[in-house]
């Protein structure tokens, strides 16, 4: 098919590009899309216009159009091609590629030229750097030679200066030596002759220089005498042998000069001329480092020489009442006195700082003198150590007063030491010195503390005994039997008293903490003090429980004395019954009395354990073994109390069971379980004996339920339940039962079972349930006994005993039936 005229014209125009490609086109923000668009945009608009002129119908329209081929041409008989400029664009792209290749070659050539130029410049730069390095090395060598020269010149100059300084020093030393030898010869001329000395030693305006020269001469002379081993005897006969005369004369002169300076210092001190005092102190510092001046100044303070000051201290602290003024007033007095001492020392410190060249040394001497003289004089009047053999009377405060005053004095003196430390005391160990003031009292502190606690306990027990005696005397007209009805005449345990014991101990522990700085010492003292509390509480509670047991014993003796027994006389029986009622009331009262004692014991032990946990434990834990040992001691003390309580609780059970047995024996009638008219309607009420027993138990055990707790309560109620079960079994062995009586027995058992259910003891509940089942042996027909045994074999042993109590045991030949049952089993 021949090409269309439009295709031919496009081929002829494809040889030229729309614009020339240059290197600048690829610099900066190059965009390929923009380059491509600039190449083809001039060709594409022609195609778009031809596409817009196409007839309606487009592809496959009614104008006879045909299908388009994939290369853009139409089939035979079709219209113009879809993309007529394709050949032109392909040619354009090929030409563009050639242009790009040419540009790349140009770039490669330019890069090769640039590499050559860079290599040449790099070689030149390396050569220049090498030449510069050589020059710098030479410059460094020059600087090193110059520095060495400068150092050499400096060392030479320093040597010259040292020589000059040494020569000047030697010249000066030689000059001073000549002067000293001249002065030494004057002192060595004749013994005791100080009249022909140079004016230097008599001129008051040159005292400082004279003191310095005298000290130098004295040091030299003593060294010479010591070096030659010649004794320092003074006398004209041996003066030529050395400098002994000079030593003696210099000593005499120094003493005279020191006394003269001290006199001048005192005069200046009276006039408060601090400058003169400072001048004298500075000169006196050359004599024994000024020790004499320091001690002289401190000793001359009014608070050490004025007796009125010391008397005032005692009056302020003790007042007119002496040691009976009370620890509060004594503490207030000590605070006032110590505050005055601190203010005095503070004022003296200001003077000392202005006068003495070594003020810290003077302050150390001053503070030491304050503690050893003024404070000690107060403590000697305040702390009078009592004898452990003859204790001071408790009416006058006893050992406790001494210990309280000791604690107050120790604490206030420690505070004074801290205040004096803040004012200044040099290198004085003020803490150690303060401790030494109380050393004699601290050595026996633990023994005094234990003796004090024992004294307080004995006094308290005596007070309680006196109160009990007074109460007993007020009821002295009562007979012994009536006294047993009133256990309150016995001294009762008081939680308040135990709390007082703990308060004493707590106060003692606070003193232990105050006096004991080392953990081991503190733990030992705390343990000994706490052991006193354990002994006191254990003894007090045990004795209290024993007194409560005495009440139980008295009630038991009273009960046994008026037991009815086999009394035939009716009037005597009535009197005995009345007395038995009174004995029962006494037993019940004693029971309540003991239960209250047990309750108070439990509260007291709880207070003791809480005190140990809160206060004692933390003080013992730092020392290995101390805490465990105290726990063991506390356990032993509590065990002794528990032992006494256990014995009493068993007696309480005996008391309760004795009354239960009395009620059963007096209230239980034979007709209760074997009615004369057995054909009558059965009585479903509990027997009168059962009602009385349950009422008694409910009333008397009410206090036990509130007094006992935990395992103690469980153990007590379980034992009581077992004893009640056993007692009822023995009691019922005395009766004969009819079928209706068996029903009433079962009603009694139900009543007892409901009551003991309040014990919360499963084993007791089970026993009473089995009793209810066993009561069926009186109810069932003789021929049904075998089935009863088969249903509950656990009751067989007791049931075999109770079957014999059936009123038809012989008439119904139950014995033979039982034997056959036993042989079959």
UniProtKB/TrEMBL annotation:
GO biological process: exocytosis; Golgi to plasma membrane transport
Composition bias, Gly residues: 55-67
Region (Disordered): 48-74
Residue ranges of every copy of the Exocyst complex component Sec10 N-terminal domain listed in the record: 87-203
Gene Ontology CC terms: exocyst
InterPro entries: Sec10-like, Sec10_HB, Sec10_N
Limits of the Exocyst complex component Sec10-like alpha-helical bundle domain: 209-815
Highest taxon listed in the record's lineage: Eukaryota
Keywords: Coiled coil, Exocytosis, Transport
The keyword Metal-binding appears for this protein: no
Pfam families for this protein: Sec10_HB, Sec10_N
Family of the protein in this entry: Belongs to the SEC10 family.
UniProt name for this protein: Exocyst complex component 5
Species in which this protein is naturally found: Ananas comosus (Pineapple)
Top-level taxonomy: Eukaryota, Viridiplantae, Streptophyta, Embryophyta, Tracheophyta
């Amino acid at each position: 098919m021949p090409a269309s005229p439009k295709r031919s014209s496009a081929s002829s125009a494809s040889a030229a590009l729309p614009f020339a490609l240059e290197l600048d086109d690829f610099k900066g923000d190059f965009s390929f899309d923009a380059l491509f668009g600039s190449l083809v945009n001039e060709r594409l608009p022609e195609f778009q216009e031809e596409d817009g002129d196409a007839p309606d119908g487009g592809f496959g329209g009614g104008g006879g159009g045909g299908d388009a081929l994939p290369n853009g041409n139409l089939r035979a008989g079709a219209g113009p091609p879809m993309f007529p400029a394709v050949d032109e664009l392909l040619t354009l792209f090929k030409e563009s590629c050639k242009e790009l290749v040419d540009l790349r070659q140009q770039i490669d050539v330019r890069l090769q030229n640039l590499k050559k130029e860079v290599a040449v410049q790099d070689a030149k730069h390396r050569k220049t750097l090498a030449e510069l390095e050589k020059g710098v090395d030479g410059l460094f060598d020059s600087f090193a030679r110059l520095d060495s020269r400068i150092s050499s010149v400096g060392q030479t100059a320093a040597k010259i200066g040292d020589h000059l300084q040494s020569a000047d020093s030697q010249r000066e030393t030689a000059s001073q030596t000549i002067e000293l030898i001249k002065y030494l010869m004057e002192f060595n001329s004749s013994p005791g002759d100080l009249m022909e000395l140079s004016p230097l030693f008599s001129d008051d305006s040159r005292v400082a220089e004279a003191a310095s020269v005298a000290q130098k001469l004295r040091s030299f002379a003593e060294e010479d005498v010591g070096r030659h081993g010649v004794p320092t005897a003074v006398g004209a006969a041996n003066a030529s042998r050395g400098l002994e005369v000079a030593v003696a004369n210099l000593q005499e002169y120094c003493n005279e000069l020191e006394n003269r300076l001290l006199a001048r210092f005192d005069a200046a001190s009276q006039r408060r001329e601090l400058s003169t005092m400072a001048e004298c102190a500075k000169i006196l510092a050359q004599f024994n480092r000024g020790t004499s001046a320091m001690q002289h100044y401190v000793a001359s303070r009014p608070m050490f020489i004025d007796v009125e000051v010391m008397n005032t201290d005692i009056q302020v602290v003790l007042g007119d009442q002496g040691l009976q003024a009370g620890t509060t007033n004594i503490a207030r007095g000590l605070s006032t006195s110590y505050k005055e001492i601190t203010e005095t020392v503070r004022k003296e410190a200001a003077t000392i700082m202005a006068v003495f060249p070594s003020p810290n040394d003077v302050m150390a001497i001053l503070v030491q003198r304050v503690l050893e003289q003024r404070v000690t004089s107060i403590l000697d009047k305040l702390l009078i150590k009592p004898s452990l053999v003859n204790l001071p009377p408790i009416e006058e405060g006893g050992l406790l007063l001494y210990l309280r005053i000791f604690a107050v004095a120790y604490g206030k003196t420690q505070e004074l030491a801290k205040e004096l430390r803040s004012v200044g005391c040099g290198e004085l160990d003020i803490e150690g010195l303060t401790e030494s003031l109380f050393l004699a009292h601290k050595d026996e502190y633990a023994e005094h503390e234990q003796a004090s606690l024992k004294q307080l306990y004995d006094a308290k027990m005596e007070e309680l005994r006196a109160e009990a005696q007074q109460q007993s005397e007020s009821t002295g007209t009562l007979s012994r039997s009536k006294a047993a009805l009133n256990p309150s005449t016995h001294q009762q345990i008081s939680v308040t008293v135990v709390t007082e014991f703990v308060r004493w101990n707590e106060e003692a522990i606070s003193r232990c903490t105050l006096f004991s700085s080392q953990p081991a010492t503190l733990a030992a003292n705390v343990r000994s003090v706490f052991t006193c509390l354990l002994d006191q509480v254990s003894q007090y509670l045990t004795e209290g429980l024993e007194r409560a047991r005495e009440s139980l014993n008295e009630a038991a003796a009273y009960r046994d004395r008026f037991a009815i027994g086999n009394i035939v006389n009716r009037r005597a029986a009535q009197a005995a019954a009345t007395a038995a009622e009174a004995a029962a009331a006494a037993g019940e009262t004693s029971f309540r009395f003991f239960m209250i004692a047990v309750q108070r014991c439990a509260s007291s032990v709880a207070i003791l354990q809480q005190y140990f946990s809160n206060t004692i434990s933390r003080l013992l834990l730092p020392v290995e073994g101390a805490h465990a040992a105290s726990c063991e001691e506390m356990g032993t003390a509590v065990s002794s109390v528990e032992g006494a309580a256990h014995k009493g609780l068993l007696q309480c059970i005996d008391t309760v069971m004795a009354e239960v047995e009395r009620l059963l024996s007096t209230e239980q009638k034979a007709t209760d379980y074997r009615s004369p008219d057995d054909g009558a309607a059965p009585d479903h009420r509990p027997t009168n004996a059962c009602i009385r027993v349950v009422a008694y138990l409910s009333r008397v055990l009410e206090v036990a339920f509130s007094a006992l707790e935990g395992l103690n309560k469980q153990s007590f109620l379980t034992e009581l339940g077992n004893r009640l079960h056993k007692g009822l079994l023995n009691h019922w062995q005395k009766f004969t039962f009819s079928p209706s009586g068996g029903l009433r027995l079962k009603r009694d058992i139900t009543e007892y079972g409901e009551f003991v259910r309040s014990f919360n003891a499963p084993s007791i509940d089970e026993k009473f349930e089995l009793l209810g089942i066993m009561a069926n042996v009186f109810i069932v027909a003789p021929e049904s006994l075998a089935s009863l045994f088969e249903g509950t074999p656990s009751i067989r042993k007791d049931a075999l005993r109770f079957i014999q109590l059936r009123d038809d045991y012989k008439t119904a030949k139950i014995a033979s039936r039982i034997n056959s049952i036993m042989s079959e089993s």
